[in-house]
Structures are given as C-alpha cells and as structure tokens.
Please model this.
Amino acid sequence: MLENLPKTYNPKDFEDRLYKYWNDNNHFVAHVDKTKKPYTIMMPPPNVTGSLHMGHALNNTIQDVLTRWKRMEGYSALWLPGTDHASISTEAKVVEKINKEGKSKEELGREGFLEEAWDWTHKYGSTIKNQLKKLGVSCDWTRDRFTLDEGLSKAVEEVFIRLYDKGLIYRGDRIINWCPNCKTAISDAEVEHEDSQGHIWHIRYPIKDSNEYIVIATTRPETMLGDLAIAVNPEDERYRDVIGKTAILPLMNREIPIIADDYVEMEFGTGAVKITPSHDPNDFEVGERHGLGQYIIMNEDGTISSNGGIYEGLERYDARKKIVADLESQGYLVETKEHQNAVGHCERCTTIVEPLISKQWFVKMEPLAKPALEAYKNGEVNFIPERFGKIYTNWLEGIRDWCISRQLWWGHRLPVYYCDECGEIIVSRAKPEKCTKCNSTHLHQDTDTLDTWFSSALWPFSTLGWPEKTEDLEYFFPTDVLITGYDIIFFWVVRMVFSSIEQMGEVPFKDVFLTGLVRDSQGRKMSKSLGNGIDPLEIIDEYGADALRFTLVTGNSPGNDMRFYTERVEANRNFANKLWNATRFVLMNLEEDVAKEELNLDSLEEEDKWILSRLNSVVKEATENLDKYEIGMAAQKIYDFIWDEYCDWYIEMVKSRLYGENESSKQTAEKVLLFVLKDILKLLHPFMPFITEEIWQHLPDNDRPLILSSWPIYKDELNFPESEEAIEFIKSGIKGIRNARAEMNIVPSKKSTQIFVTKNEKIKNIINYGQRYFLNLASAEEIEIRDTKDGIGEDNISVVLDRCEVFLPLKDLIDFEKEIERLGKEKEKLEGEIKRVVGKLSNEGFVKKAPEKVVAEEKEKQKKYEEMLEKVMERLESIKTNR
Model:
C-alpha cells in the first residue's frame, strides 16, 4: 500500500509549506526561452501602504489561474509583481504620523520628510506582498518592481523629457481640480462625482446707469466674488439690447462687461450666465476668447483670498452662507430653489474639490488619444466584456489635457529647473551647471512631483527595463492580458495604451479582462463605514486559500459585481474535503507498482471508458473556456466532474472490482482511478493549487511537482460515445429508482425485484451489462428484462426512462398495514400544525402586532404543511388502492 494522506484535510498543515517549497525552488521564475512562447501578465500594482481586500483577492486569483494554466501549457509564463508608491495616499499617512509626533512636514524639510516616507514604505511596503503570498500567487518575485525603483524612475524621467521635446508637455495657467485638504491638483480621473441635494440661487445683477438688471442662476454663489463678465447668447432676442453694456457686481460693486458667446445655452436657466474664469473650466475658455484675464478669490486651503474683500479669510462654505445672507438683505436675491447636481469629491480624502486656475504642468492629450482610439477600433485591444470598450472610447473622444503636476514631495520630482535670474525653464536629466539663456548659476528645481498615474502608465514596459533594450523587454513585451477592475479604465488602462503606443510603437496588451466589485451578501459595497468588509486573510485562516480562491472564481463573470457568501466558501472547503477523502480511498486501494505500466485501452470496461471519455470532454471544454476567459465556467465544469462523476459515480461503480477476485479487472480499475485522478489534479491546480500539489506529491511515480506538470490535452482515442450513452442510461436508471424509493420512504436496505420493460435491443444489452450496478447501487434483489408490461400488476412503483420503463413491486417493499399506520400518524401531526397556524393567522391581534416578517413566516409554514398533507393523502390513497 502507498503512503496515504493524513486522515483529516487541514489546509494549515501544508499551504505555507508548499508556498515556500515552490518559491525556494524558483518554480515561479520565468525564463527567456526562445524554444517557448512567452506569456506575460503585469500585476496591477497595489498601493505600497495597502493591505489585502476582497478586490485584490479576486483580481490576483484570476491572474494566478491564467499564469499557472499557461505555465502548464508549456509557455514561459511571466507574472510580474510590484507595488505603487501612491503619492497622495502615502504622503497623507506620513504627514499624519509626523503630526502625531508633534512635527510638521515643513519643519522636517523635503529631505527629512522623504526619509520618513521611505522608512514608512520599508516598514509597511511588504505587508500586501506577504498577504498575497497567503493567497498562493505564483508571480515571479525575482522581478518584483516598485514605481520609485531607480530603473522605473529613469523611465519616468525619459518619457517626460521625450514628451516635452515633442511639445506634448507644457506649463500653463489652466483650470484644474484642486483638493483643499490634500493641497494638490488632482486629475479628472481622481474626482468622484456624487449626486447631491443642494440649491440654485437666482441673483439680480444691476445694469450700470439704468433701472434694469439681469438675473443669473448659480449653484456656487461664493464664486461670484471672482466674476469678470456676464455672458448671453448672441442670438438671444431677450438680451440683444444689453450686449456691450456694463453690469455692477453685487456686494463687490465692481463693473463687469456683458458679452455675447455661443457657449451660453438660451434654453438653460435665465439664458444669462456669470463668467468666473479662475474658478470654472468653461468660464476659463470664455475668458480666454474675450481676453477677460483672471481674478482668483480662493486660497489653496479653501478660504477666501484677499481679492474677496470683506469675505477674506472665511472658509468657502461659511463665505457662501454670509454672501447669500448679504444678497438677501441688500435686495439682490430673487429666489432660492432646491437643486440636484453632481458634486466632485477627491477620491482619496472625499473633500469636495474646487475648480481653480493654477499654474501647472500638462500633457497635450489629443495627439496621444487619437492612436489609442484607433488601436481599439482596429481590434488591437479587446475588452472582456466588450461593453466596456464604450467607456474607453467615450473617455478618449472627450479627453482634456492631463494635469500631471502635484504639490507633493513623495513621488517622481519633475526634471524641471528654473533660472532665478531670467526665469528660463530648463528640462534636464541632471541639474544644469548654468542657465542656457543668461549663463546664471542660480537655478532651482521645481518642487512638484508627477501624478502617480504618470509612472504607472509606463508599467507594462518600464518594469521590463525600458528605456534600455533588455532581453526581458524584447521577449516578454507586449504582454498578453491585463486583469483589472472596471473602475480604473480611464485612470490606468487608457494611459497605459497611449503611453505604450507613443514609446513602444504598439499596444501594451492584447486583452483587458475587467473584474467587477466584490460586494457583501446583501449586495452592498464593502466599506469601513458600513463595517461590512470581509478580510480575505481571516477567510483563509478558517477555510484555507483554496476554498476562498474557488469561491471567487466560480461566483464571478467578467465585468459583473459578485456577492460574497461565507456559506459558499464553506461549501468549497467541503469540496476540497471530498477530493481529499476520495484520494485517500484511491491510495488505500492502489498496489505499489500500479503506475509503472501504461493504461491498456483494450482492457477497459464500460465504466472505465465512460469516465475517460467524460474526462476527455471536460479537458476540451475547460481549455476552450479558459481560452475565452470564461474562468468561472471552466471551474464549474471541473468541479461537477470531480464531485459528481468521479467521486459519486465512478468510485462507487468500481468498488466491486477493487474488492473482487478478478485481478485483471482490479488492476485496470486501479490504473483508471489513478489516471483520472492525476488529470483531475492538473485541471484543478490553477484554481486550487495547494490541495492539488499536496495530493500530487503523495501519488506514485511523480518525479516532478504538479506546478511543472503538463496541462491535459484532448485525445481522440479516449473518446467513447457508446460507453458514455450506456453508463448515462445506467446512471439515470439508478437515480430514478432511488428517487422513487425515497418518495415512498423506503430504506436502502429493503431490496426488491426490478422489472425493466423495453423492446430496444441496445437498451437490453446495457441493462444486462449494468445488472451489478442496479444490484449494488439501486437496492435491486434481482433484475428482470421484459418486452411488454403483460402480467405486471397495478401495485408497482413505475420509473420512466429513455426507451424503457422500470417497475418496482410494492409488495416487496412495503408492509401496507404498517405504512398506512405511519402515514395516518403523519396526517394527524400535519393537521395539528395547520390548525395551529390557521388559529394564529386568524387572530387579528397577532397579525396586527407581530412583525411583518413573522407573519410572512407563519403563512409560509401553512403553505408548506398543506402541501405536505396533500402528498401524504395521495400516498395513503395509492397504498389503499394497490394493497
């Protein structure tokens, strides 16, 4: 007998050990091998200060499934891991830490602060990596990257300089999204819009030297302090006489022109709009066309600036309240209405962002967006599911220039230098010795850093050594698939595509597989505020990584959110336990040398051919599913085959052969059991790597670990359709007989004659062959096969099968008097329950006072008891008729 598995399946006994074994033996390391095809996935780099959540667990499980599968298919599979420096998030955490210590960012200075940030990163930066390892990720840790690594920083610098030299990066005064809390510009993609119930205020603006006025509507009355004009549509008959006149800005008593511009929609509001070029992106454009200039009325911390007159120093929303009160008291406020509008929040800290004119660095997006759009339309980039291509297209078609400078210290510092004497701007890899314009040696570097997404946009090629022409870059680029959440298509996916086309001349990946969100069992988004987050590590600790992984992939389809149920994890742990116990049974019944001889197809019996043929089909179908990224479907087919066909049917069918006297039949059964088990482990390995590897290493004659074994392939010679038809008929017969007996409450030990009625010779042969199964698995005492029903009485249970009917004589199975007595007691019991429930529900006091849920439960009970009573009455009637 072979060495068996421990009696109890306990993932804690081997998961950590196996991960160390794989890693120590470099089984995750990808090699440049010209004899193999490369397969590359880049891990979306989690924040260096992050910790594992269910979204990470889902995303990385899918990446691991594909990587392990392709490795087994013979590819040189590289899954490259890494982390992102996450400038805003990390800086905020470090600032919070040093503030608690009684220090400030400014006191420490830039160098001191960066030391603190690096200390923080080294301390917490490996947390999420270690947590990912608990999940079983088979990424190549020897190629682990960090967005602030020297090589990646060099790539960022190179791209900035190249784009600047091409005129695609510029510095200018533009409206940006400003976060008053983070005190930095943020890109459009980092603004989350939420519908909010607010107000719209209608305000009178007097026209100079007249009794007339214009009414404008605004949702941000505090910005009126910065108004530089009123605009109307040139075609609007209502306002033709006032174009060119001057209005008086309420409260500020400042004169502003009334201008005509096509931007104004005549049908919207009053048809007249206030123009605040420094605090609204559309107003900025109008201001540029009409040469209005700028007038900033807000400081970086969200307070009113010195341009705000008596409102200077007030926080923006306090200023709003005072301005509205003053407008009302001075007769300028016409009306206030409730108004629903989308308000932009900083995605990092949730502060409402402020559109603000600011001198920032920008990337010109139109020349970069066009080829990225064409690449999608030409089919060079595929979205899975396809519908997400619309988001990609819409975002690129409506793209604005990208603000890339951030007022932070943690990140990639801009390679930009300014001359203190003449103001010349110099973009350079190293600090110039002197100004290229006036030869001054007084130069200083820009204090800003680049948007985090600028560096992560280069991730697919910077991680492989670009701008150097490395062997890795030549072999592993472009990558095959990106697996990421649908919520960052425009944050990251779009930017990687246009950056790669610009720098590499081709798209960075062929496919984009988009995952949905993992929600709680009620369908809610997991969040700290709701307290409904589920820690993947706690699930792994209780149920094992394999059970969690299998739950995530089988409950998932591309692009759709999934609900997470702990009960499903428990069910998948039970599945692992089922496979464990089935393996223990197989190992107990294998001879030492069973694996040394090849499987002889000529010696196979019908059930052997059936299981091999079914395995063959599952191999084909699962591979096709994986090719189409139908990962959940592939997993479900493998699960069904293992649980239902291998464990519940094939093992049961061959038990009589394993315990019988026919040595040849016994050896064939052993070989098939082992052959199928090995392929089962291979098929399941990408999904549940730990249990499959542990079992594999207990099987005979395995000289290589499962992680390095070959993926099963479809073989024509293992296709046995007639055997499949035969065994499926036998299975349906056994199931039909079992169900009929169960409905009659007949215990399995009570055996009976089973009469099969069919004229079909093929079916007769199948029944003849399957006699031992009906005897062993369907409680048959003997089998009769007849052409007709002649001579078969009415007192039988009937089971209808394909081209056949089975009769089970009731006299063999039931003591009629005892059964009538038992059913009578059951009838009395159910009638009593129905009477109790009806009494409760007819009590008005109960129905009115009891919670709605309790009343509904009682009604459900009544329905259930009535249905049960109906079945009992039917059975009583049937037995009385047939006895």
Remarks:
- DSSP finds 28 helices and 29 strands in the chain.
- The two ends are 53 Å apart (CA to CA).
